[in-house]
Specification:
Blueprint lengths: L4 E12 L2 E10 H5 L3 H12 L1 H4 L3 H17 L9 H12 L21
Antiparallel strand pairs: 1-2
Helix pairs in contact: 2-4, 2-5, 4-5
Length: 115
Amino acid sequence: MLLLPTGSSQECRDAGAGTLSCIEQGTTLLSVQGAGVVPVLLLPAVLCLVPVFAPLRLVAQAAAVTVVVFCVVSALSVGLFYLPVGIVGLVLAVRRPDNADPLDQQPAPVVRPLS
């Protein structure tokens, strides 16, 4: 998405003797917005990794839902590009094993010494 053509620009100059010299260039998101847009574009992809490393299922599900909401809100610009990332995040959060959530585990039995 960063390097895909997003538009074009045309620059024309007077070459003298009544002729124009025109140059047409393609523009990309990176060339128009600069390198500062890279972290912003990586944020949803990094947020998708939260379900892999989050200790709680609720945190994983919240991260996945956040990415999907981002996809819907920004659907007219870059959101549709992140839809596969949102789907993967939801799958990772929902298919998380039960034993991966510390709140779902049973407490250890209390062992008392024999007298």
